[in-house]
């Protein structure tokens, strides 16, 4: 049986991003995996009850998702509101879904404080990027799910082919 792939809902064309938009990833592999029934779609933030649209959020003080999971950092909205608990619940929901559905891989949107795996923003809302994982990406990796960003789809294709 082919393993499933957890995919960020915004990459599948769902308008679930903080700004109410989607960011569809158009690639033949996506269509093939969809036809094979391998894709499991989630927006972690929406699964935790966050609304669309919502204020932008970043992991504060240039911290990472791992630090949020460890209780050493927080996630804050541009408004200053602390949304750490929502992001922790979002990560828990994504891990639960991935494990229940048999997802060995995840394809997540980069840059997100939840799904980012190649880069996230530094918490200043200035557009500055830093290497690191979002909260959900960090939780999935800790649970043994291999995480790939939307920019790494070719690597995911190669990994699945092994």
UniProtKB/TrEMBL annotation:
A family per Pfam: 2-thiour_desulf
Classification via InterPro entries: 2-thiour_desulf
Organism domain of life: Bacteria
UniProt protein name: Uncharacterized protein YbbK (DUF523 family)
Organism: Rhizobium laguerreae
């Amino acid at each position: 049986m082919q393993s499933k792939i957890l995919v960020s809902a915004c990459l599948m064309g769902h308008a679930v991003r903080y700004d109410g938009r989607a960011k569809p990833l158009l690639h033949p592999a996506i269509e093939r995996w969809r036809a094979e029934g391998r894709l499991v779609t989630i927006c972690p933030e929406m699964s935790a009850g966050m609304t669309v649209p919502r204020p932008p959020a970043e992991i504060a003080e240039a911290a990472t998702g791992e630090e949020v999971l460890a209780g050493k950092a927080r996630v804050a909205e541009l408004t200053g509101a602390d949304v750490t608990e929502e992001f922790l619940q979002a990560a828990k929901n994504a891990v639960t879904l991935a494990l229940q559905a048999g997802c060995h891989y995840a394809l997540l949107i980069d840059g997100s404080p939840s799904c980012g795996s190649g880069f996230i923003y530094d918490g200043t809302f200035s557009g500055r990027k830093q290497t690191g994982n979002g909260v959900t990406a960090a939780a999935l990796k800790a649970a043994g799910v291999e995480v790939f960003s939307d920019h790494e789809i070719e690597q995911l294709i190669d990994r699945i082919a092994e």
